[in-house]
TrEMBL record:
This is 3-(3-hydroxyphenyl)propionate hydroxylase. One of its GO terms (molecular function) is 3-(3-hydroxyphenyl)propionate hydroxylase activity. Residues 5-298 form the FAD-binding domain. One of its GO terms (biological process) is 3-(3-hydroxy)phenylpropionate catabolic process. It comes from Streptomyces violaceusniger. Keywords: Oxidoreductase.
């Protein structure tokens, strides 16, 4: 989980609960097939520009329990467990969702439907929406274990750069550890997923730890894919997360991408349903998020090839190139960067803060986002200028973290959307208005 996405959890009111079940991730280590270190990228900063750790390790079921508890505590939300959606139908005033559970068949009328139902999305199939393949399909084995004693390994992520059996190893939190192994064409899946097969795969780590007192919590094969849905919206039905796009896991943006989707869409949908914005605002959801998601998917494919692709002389050459690149400071910085690609809101290719999240920090008075509020906000170094109505004005000083950020980017005033993305810059409010 990167800091930008953790900020979304903060807005949802569960950041403190997430911090209680997570830990900052200290960096990345590239190792060869014999687990010898090729390069190491350490992350020394504990807090990034979003006010949270730039990367955090956690066990996803623990986060799901936190989110479910928050949802069930909200009186505005009704949760139906064990329900299967069977049809999604457009209606003049919204959408009809047909579903069934142990009590029989049901029908729900909705003003909008958000299909967050995974790679095999029922909602996507109901709308007959196709997917575009970005050229990556590989089966991998994911193994989660509990260890009665800490494994004596570095606490960051280990990427095994082996053209044959590429793998990833990481300590999650507490007594939980994870391995991911590429599945080979010659593998016997039944043996590979058996306790004996798993112990054979993780044997090098167990030898290093001096014990094998572990409990296999989960052993599942997944097919990592790179795909994007052709349409993310049809009238008032939307696709989010894996229903809209799937990525290989090499830069850890699967869950985060889904949360970014929701954060981008819901403030727009709220304004349209409330009558404060035209329906065309909803078209910007895919227009903004698809380019961003595809960029991250292609980055994951490239990283995956760099770490695991090729064989023979190609693999040896790749190892030499990786070692050489790792000695370049800019490469090291890029390897640890959690900053996502900026949204293209202004059509400009040159560097700009437009399309990036406004940074935030935490003081004794609270989070900077609390000052921004839930609507549009004007963040400015010049609070004396005439201000618009219905926009929260947040004055910052030149020595504040956000003030220094404005000065560094040579702007005096920025307009921030409800999702905390900068949508315009200028010296004064009048400059913004003219844009």
């Amino acid at each position: 989980m990167d800091g930008e996405v953790l900020r979304i959890l903060q807005e949802a009111g569960v950041a403190d609960a997430f911090h209680a079940i997570s830990r900052p991730m200290p960096g990345l280590r590239l190792v060869d097939a014999d687990l010898r270190t090729m390069a190491e990228f350490r992350r020394d900063a504990r807090v990034g520009p979003s006010g949270h750790p730039e990367a955090s390790m956690f066990d996803q079921p623990a986060l799901e329990r936190v989110l479910l508890a928050a949802v069930e505590a909200d009186p505005r939300v009704t949760v139906h467990r064990g329900a299967e959606v069977t049809a999604v139908e457009h209606r003049p005033n919204g959408v009809t969702v047909r579903w069934q559970d142990d009590t029989g068949a049901h029908r729900t009328q909705a003003r909008a439907v958000l299909g967050c139902d995974g790679a095999g999305s029922t909602v996507r199939a109901a709308l007959d929406i196709g997917v575009r393949d970005l050229g990556y399909t590989e089966p991998w084995l994911v193994v989660d274990v509990r260890s009665s004693r800490p494994l004596p390994m570095w606490d960051g992520v280990h990427q095994v750069c082996d053209s044959q059996r590429a793998a990833t190893f990481m300590h999650l939190v507490g007594d939980r550890y994870r391995w991911e192994f590429r599945v080979l064409d010659t593998d016997d899946i039944e043996h590979l997923t058996s306790p004996a097969g798993v112990h054979e795969l993780i044997a090098p780590w167990m030898r290093a730890s001096g014990h094998d007192d572990i409990e296999i919590v989960r052993c599942v094969t997944y097919t990592f894919r790179a795909r994007v849905a052709e349409r993310w919206r049809e009238r008032r039905v939307f696709l989010l997360g894996d229903a809209a796009h799937q990525t290989p896991p090499f830069i850890g943006q699967g869950l985060g991408a889904g949360l970014r989707d929701a954060h981008n869409l819901v403030w727009k949908l709220e304004r349209v349903l409330r009558g404060d914005a035209d329906d065309t605002l909803l078209d910007t959801y895919q227009a903004e998020r698809e380019r961003h998601a595809v960029k991250q998917i292609r980055a994951a494919i490239m990283v995956g090839w760099a770490l695991t692709g090729g064989n023979g002389h190609t693999a040896a050459l790749r190892r030499q190139v990786v070692r050489a690149l790792c000695r370049i400071p800019a490469v090291s910085k890029a390897a640890l960067s959690s900053t996502s690609p900026r949204l293209r809101l202004d059509g400009r290719r040159r560097p700009s803060v437009v399309g990036r999240q406004c940074p935030q920090s935490r003081t004794e008075a609270g989070w900077f986002d609390d000052r921004l509020g839930d609507g549009f906000a004007l963040v400015t170094l010049d609070p004396q200028q005439p201000m618009p109505r219905d926009v929260t004005v947040v004055a910052v000083r030149p020595n504040d973290p956000v003030g220094r950020w404005l000065i560094r980017h040579r702007v005096r005033t920025v307009l921030v959307r409800p999702d905390k993305v900068v949508c315009a810059t200028g010296r004064t409010w009048l400059d913004l208005e003219e844009r």
